[in-house]
Write a structure and sequence with these properties.
Blueprint: E1 20-28, E2 34-38, E3 41-45, E4 53-61, E5 65-75, H1 101-118, E6 142-149, E7 155-160, E8 167-169, H2 181-194, E9 208-215, E10 222-228, H3 236-246, E11 250-257, E12 269-275, E13 278-283, E14 286-291, H4 300-314, E15 321-325, H5 333-337, E16 342-347, H6 350-362, E17 368-372, H7 375-382, E18 388-391, H8 400-409, E19 413-418, H9 421-433, E20 437-445, E21 455-462
Parallel strand pairs: 3-5, 10-11, 15-16, 15-18, 16-17, 18-19
Antiparallel strand pairs: 1-2, 1-4, 2-3, 4-5, 6-7, 6-9, 7-8, 9-10, 11-12, 13-14, 19-21, 20-21
Length: about 475
């Protein structure tokens, strides 16, 4: 049996940890790293851009690929730009502030296409060009920062360094709504003066865990939420009143209680300390109430774009029955209910269903109902034939039981909304593998500029 050819040039640096090599970056992958090749082997390099010629140091070396650290840029790409944030190369919140926005969109389209090919098994999937975000910066309507102490004892709030739990301290962030920036810097100082202990995840001691800021993009109303391992923070009531007076758009201060040894941010109990426990937001010309722990898409204006794409493509006549699986607080259910005869939302979380019903009443939408439970349990009990089912599951995708139930129900149209191309591709493969559905289009849309994450809408139609 002939030996495999060694693709390393005899005079080239050896393929081993610690060595410096020179490569050109030819792509960006789904985690945000640049991708290059060295003598037929793949090299992943953070903080690089397609078109960069770089010298990198090999770190984690495998037979056919390696991870490397950028040593220096020999020739910068035309798509390399100056980051807006001075800690962009350290903070794990963004990975692509150094990448021209048009190049980000191209990389996201390619990532979706490749996921559908490699994971979904689609030979040539119809993937449209990624639709840009309404804003490429200052788009986030919510930011939740872990808290910590510096070596000198000062309070820190920020995002973790990539691949670590070391906080990069921030006083502002270019991707969050700029109206939240004063709160981040000033509230840190106020907490520092209170002297509250900060939670240590190693020994599970201390109280304050996270600072969460939320704003209604279209109303300007704001919420502050402290996540604590203790229900008692001395002086919080008095400080909350100070904050309400200081910030005219601040409508509520909450304390979320999370005493468990977990990396889940919010615990099950939230207490309103001052003001109200929700903010008002206008979305798709409807009023929504959003609490501290309510799931709502972080890019409000681009979510409105997504909704318009769905409405325009479906060409609803007004006599349809629509089911919104994984409906949450009715973000999509309620606007779409105005376009159909009847809408039904399904959601496993009772608190979200409670809010969905409240939001329906707020907007006088009477042709909608909401059911609490799993899709695979609720859908067969409805005993109706829907014309359309909307799927918007969490990142892990649909449960297998839910997909099997969908294939039995077989509505003429499915719309699958996903923030994770890999699980989307996996689920689309199952939905189309038995010949009952055909994938018409996957439309990526950028909810998360300056990061490699991307939202997608997949349109499927039943094959009669």
């Amino acid at each position: 049996m002939p030996k495999k050819e060694n693709l390393l040039d005899r005079n080239a640096p050896q393929w081993q940890q610690g060595n410096l090599i020179e490569i050109e970056i030819c792509d960006l992958n789904h985690t945000g790293d640049g991708v290059g090749k060295y003598c037929g082997k793949v090299v992943f390099v953070p903080n690089t851009v397609t078109g960069d010629l770089v010298k990198v140091r090999l770190l984690n070396v495998k037979p056919q690929y390696a991870y490397a650290k950028l040593d220096r840029i020999i020739r910068p790409s035309r798509d390399r730009i100056r980051p807006r944030c001075i800690v962009a190369d350290k903070c794990g919140g963004c990975q692509w502030q150094h990448v021209n926005y048009d190049r980000q969109l191209i990389a996201k389209t390619e990532a979706v296409f490749q996921s559908l090919r490699r994971i979904g098994g689609f030979v040539n999937p119809n993937v449209a060009a990624t639709i840009p975000s309404f804003d490429s910066i200052a788009y986030r309507n919510k930011a939740t920062y872990p808290l910590g102490r510096s070596a000198t004892g000062n309070l820190q709030a920020g995002y973790y360094r990539k691949g670590s739990h070391q906080i990069v301290n921030l006083n502002q962030c270019p991707i969050q709504d700029p109206r939240l920036n004063p709160l981040l810097a000033e509230i840190k100082q106020d907490i520092q003066q209170q002297g509250w202990s900060v939670y240590d995840e190693k020994n599970h001691r201390g109280r304050l865990r996270h600072l969460s800021l939320r704003i209604g993009k279209n109303t300007g109303e704001m919420l502050i939420t402290l996540v604590s391992a203790s229900k008692r923070l001395e002086g919080l009531v008095e400080l909350a009143e100070v904050w309400l007076k200081r910030y005219p758009n601040l409508v509520g201060i909450n304390l979320n209680y999370n005493p468990t040894k977990t990396n889940v941010i919010f615990g099950p109990e939230t207490y309103c300390i001052a003001g109200r426990n929700y903010l008002r937001e206008i979305f798709a010309n409807l009023e929504f109430q959003l609490r501290a722990d309510t799931f709502f898409q972080i890019n409000t204006k681009t979510t409105e774009k997504l909704l318009k794409i769905i409405i325009d493509r479906l060409k609803l006549k007004g006599n349809e029955i629509l089911i919104d699986a994984y409906c949450g607080i009715g973000t999509f259910t309620l606007p779409l209910a105005q376009k159909v005869a009847k809408a039904i939302g399904i959601e496993v979380q009772p608190q979200a269903i409670e809010q969905a019903k409240l939001n329906a009443n707020l907007n006088n939408i009477s042709n909608v109902s909401f059911k609490t439970g799993k899709v695979e349990s609720i859908l067969p009990d409805l005993k109706i034939k829907p014309d359309l089912i909307i799927l918007d599951p969490p990142r892990k995708g649909c449960e297998r039981g839910a997909i099997e139930t969908l294939l039995e129900t077989l509505p003429p149209h499915l719309v699958y909304i996903s923030c994770q191309p890999a699980t989307l591709a996996r689920d689309l493969k199952i939905l189309t593998s038995n010949g009952k559905y055909q994938l018409s289009l996957v439309q990526p849309i950028d909810f998360f500029p300056q990061t490699p994450h991307v939202e997608c809408i997949a349109f499927l139609r039943a094959i009669s």
